[in-house]
Amino acid sequence: MRFTKSFLTLLLAALAIAGPRARCQAIPTGTQSTAIYVDGAKGSDINSNATITGTSVAPLQTIQAAINLANTRNMQNIGTKIVVNPGVYREALNISGGQTTAPLTIEAATAGLTVISGSDLLTGWSSDGNGVYSHSWTYNFGTCAVPNGWPSFGTIGRRTEMIFVNGASMTEVLSMSALTTRSFYVNASNHTIYVKPPSGTNMYTANVETAVRPQILSISGRSNVVLRGVVLEHARSCVNTSGSIISGGSNILVDNVQAVWNNWGGLLISGSYNVTVQNSVFSFNGGVGFLGNRIVGALFSYDKSDYNNWRGAQAHFYNWGMGGTKLMYMRNTTVQYLHAYGNQAQGLWFDTDNKNITINNVSLGGNTLSALQIEANEGPILLENSHLCNSGMGVTVLNTEKFTIKNNVFYDNGGTGQQYDAEIFIAGRPGGHVIYDWQTGQYYDLFTKDTILSGNVFDDARSGQQVFGTYLSGGDWYDFANTLNSSSNHWHDPVTAAAWKLPNGKSATFTGWKSAVGTDYTSVWASPSTSPAGACAVAAQ
After folding, report:
1. Of 470, 492, 465, which Cα lies nearest the Cα of 481?
2. pLDDT digits (tens, 9 = 90+) for 419-443
3. How many other C-beta atoms are found inside a 10 Å radius of the C-beta of residue 419?
4. Fewest beta carbons less than 10 Å away: which of 5, 377, 423, 534?
5. With the C-alpha atoms ordered 523, 527, 530, 533, is the resulting torsion angle positive or negative?
6. Cβ–Cβ contacts within 10 Å for residue 219, how many?
7. Long-range contacts of the stretch 414-419 (C-beta < 8 A, 24+)
8. What span, in angstroms and rounded, lies between the C-alpha atoms of 460 and 464?
């Protein structure tokens, strides 16, 4: 895939050449002394003298009004913090233009209680009997287009309607006959929506929210920005789009933010430099929780991306642009202490043209496909001190070079009936995968080679699993096997000793594996002294 180089692309490439300094510049902390206050219940965007103030005793009513005022101050080189009191703000926020060095912070007065919502309230429901309620439906959202180059998939995966009753999500169905408890149906021909809420719900007094805004936050071309403590929810985002987007900026801090229950993507950060995302949650989104694209210098620390791709799963669509956290075209990036569980796709996915990547102390489990997928990367990439468990595959490696897997636990992956599953599965396009380096213009034909396995535990838990699998053959297998450096690993399957699946579907024992790859002679085949099951358990939300 070839991309046209924009000015931003060239700028980021120049910054990357500067080397380690990319992560040494100070991230703003949001400690500005000048503040603007927002209170949706008590504030006003225009006071009695028709002068906007935004003080703590005379707060503004909307966040966008505060942003507009902060932009004015920023252009005067005055750093400004917007403090937003608890409440639901049904707005679509835009921060763009006017690049300055003065920092801008949007911060919840109480973390988790300031909600920026893409939904509106829907009142005046009628009872149709049998627990079904109806309401006129004036929207005509239709279905999203299938993105260019994507395979076709079911209609339900391309819808964007979302209904929440007293905070609980209702499942969309495509016919009246399919309507069951906790579901809803939009009949476009008679402009009516039907909901069957949980038994005992009083729809006349219930808080019913319907998603109407496709995007709720856009920060474009701005530097020294802090987003802290807010909840981003209910964006009616289409397939392969995100409800909140930060693009073309530098020195960005996202701290203690929740992007949850959006129709497709939770948060996208793209084309930016020097980014930190920490202590944040990207969960229960219809497609991907967090998406990063073309970031130079990034730190992701103590984040969660759980239970994403519910919309895709409705259409039985699991393996394209969805999952817990997906990162593409990244440079100088560290992911640490990430929690990615229960995603109906991959947990963590580094997809295409990623360099200088460190993944450490992550917990990836219970994902439908790979706990970790590493695809089409020049590397180097390091995975260490992590747990990858209870997923369709532990780690899937496709056409990636210089990948080191060190001191990790892989447990109870595979055995799901998928075509390709194992604790570690080696795959890729036959004859290599040609990619384009977005910074330098260089082309690479990537093979899965120069892999290091050291000090890992690969432990199956039940019948039908395997510790290693591949469909490579010929020269592709030769490139992997003859450049593999494997040592001090702990391999085990409680059911079968022939737990390696080698080229041409051949099953092998530990002895056959060592003979096939010519390495791993310092490793052992034995049950671990302590079961990894406890450390792999799904943590409570």
Report:
1. 470
2. 789 999 999 999 999 999 999 999 9
3. 6
4. 534
5. positive
6. 24
7. 414/460, 414/464, 414/465, 414/466, 414/469, 415/460, 415/462, 415/463, 415/464, 415/465, 416/368, 416/392, 417/464, 418/369, 418/392, 418/393
8. 9
Residue 497 in 3-state DSSP? coil
Task: Tell me the β-bridge partners of 35.
Answer: 81
- What are the backbone dihedrals phi and psi of residue 457, each rounded to the nearest 5 degrees, phi first? -110, 125
Q: Of 294, 288, 293, nearest to 259 (Cα)?
A: 288
Contact 316, 293 (CB under 8 A): no
Contact in structure between 325 and 338 (CB atoms under 8 Å): yes
Cα separations (Å) of 489 from 93, 247, 337, 496, 526? 50, 42, 23, 18, 10
Q: What is the dihedral of CA 265, 271, 276, 280, to 10 degrees?
A: -10
- What's the rounded Cα separation, in Å, for the pair 127 and 27? 54
Strands 393-400 and 443-446: unpaired
Determine the straight-line distance between the first and last CA of the chain, rounded to whole angstroms: 38
- What is the tens place of the pLDDT at every residue in 492-537? 999 999 999 999 999 999 999 999 999 999 999 999 889 999 888 8
Identify which of 278, 256, 335, 345 has the alpha carbon closest to the alpha carbon of residue 308: 345
Beta-carbon-side half-sphere exposure of residue 243 (alpha carbons within 13 Å): 35
Q: Enter the tokens of residue 251.
A: 């020195």
